[in-house]
């Protein structure tokens, strides 16, 4: 998908910027947007020139959630979807979950419903001081989507997730920061610049293969029933460091007090025994 209608995609300085681009509709989420976001994340993940993705929105709001004026679903509501159908917000949040590249969400204004659930699998959420968030599903007579019932309790704890989801109330930026939904707050006119600054730091100081393995270790193994399967995989990873040019470069660059120059590539050098690699 080379051209997009509901988003934009651009790469500069090894950062892919994916922008929700329906400001006239406050970036209301559509089926087309869901499909385009999935395609853009695929594109960034396959491109070895891209190290980090920044996800943001055009205009004053990140996204006010599903734009029901555009139909809301890609099936006949009378007959319902077929068995393979997947709801649109989850298509995006799951694709971000499987990324090998870190994703930074730069949020301002409203991030409500699908407009927040699609960001829960991002590695960082930086928010404007005037941001507000809402898991408003119960106030619309609908249900949580975007796999948010899995992601949200892991970010903010079950008690807070129950509060926010059952009440459906709006949450301001300070409460979101205190609970752990967002990592940092910034003035609205600087939040995107801060996201780029964080992206540049990651690019300059970290190894892409190490980042890819680490983000998936956290997501895939943090809910293991015990530490034993995690340690088993750790042991294989650490045991293979003797053949890792990045591990050598990491130590040597530190001792020489210079920036590292990591050469290993995500598309070629991920350990082939990672259990999630061929999903």
Q: How would you describe this protein?
A:
- With 279 residues, this protein is of the alpha/beta class.
- 41% of the residues lie in helices and 14% in strands.
- It has 11 helices and 9 strands.
- The protein has helices at residues 31-46, 88-97, 114-117, 148-156, 158-167, 173-179, 191-205, 208-221, 227-239, 245-255, 266-269; strands at residues 7-12, 15-20, 52-57, 103-107, 110-112, 124-128, 132-134, 170-172, 184-186.
- It has a 6-stranded mixed β-sheet, sandwiched between helices. It has a 3-stranded mixed β-sheet with strand order 5-7-8.
- A hairpin with a 2-residue loop joins strand 1 (7-12) and strand 2 (15-20).
- Helix 1 (31-46) runs parallel beside helix 2 (88-97) and helix 4 packs across helix 5 (158-167).
- The longest helix has 16 residues, at 31-46.
- It is globular, with a radius of gyration of 19 Å.
- The two termini are 23 Å apart.
- The model has no long low-confidence stretch (mean pLDDT 95).
């Amino acid at each position: 998908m080379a051209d997009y209608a509901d988003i934009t995609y651009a790469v500069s300085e090894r950062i892919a910027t994916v922008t929700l681009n329906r400001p006239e509709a406050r970036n209301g989420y559509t089926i087309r947007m869901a499909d385009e976001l999935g395609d853009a994340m695929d594109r960034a993940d396959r491109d070895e020139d891209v190290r980090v993705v920044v996800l943001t929105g055009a205009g004053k709001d990140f996204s006010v959630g599903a734009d029901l004026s555009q139909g809301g679903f890609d099936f006949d509501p009378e007959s319902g979807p077929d068995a393979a159908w997947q709801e649109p917000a989850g298509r995006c949040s799951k694709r971000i979950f499987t990324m090998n590249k870190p994703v930074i969400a730069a949020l301002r204004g409203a991030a409500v419903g699908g407009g927040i659930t699609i960001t829960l699998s991002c590695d960082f959420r930086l928010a404007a001081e005037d941001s507000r968030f809402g898991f408003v599903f119960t106030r619309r007579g609908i249900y949580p989507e975007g796999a948010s019932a899995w992601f949200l309790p892991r970010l903010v704890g079950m008690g807070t997730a129950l509060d926010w989801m059952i009440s459906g109330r709006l949450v301001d930026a300070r409460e979101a920061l205190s609970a752990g939904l967002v990592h940092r707050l910034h003035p609205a006119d600087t939040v995107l610049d801060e996201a780029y600054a964080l992206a540049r730091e990651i690019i300059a100081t970290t190894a892409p293969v190490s980042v890819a393995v680490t983000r998936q270790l956290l997501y895939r193994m943090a809910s293991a029933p015990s530490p034993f399967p995690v340690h088993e995989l750790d042991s294989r990873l650490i045991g293979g460091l003797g053949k890792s040019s990045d591990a050598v470069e990491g130590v040597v660059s530190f001792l020489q007090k210079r920036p590292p120059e990591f050469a290993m590539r995500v598309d070629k050098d991920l350990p082939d025994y990672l259990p999630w690699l061929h999903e």
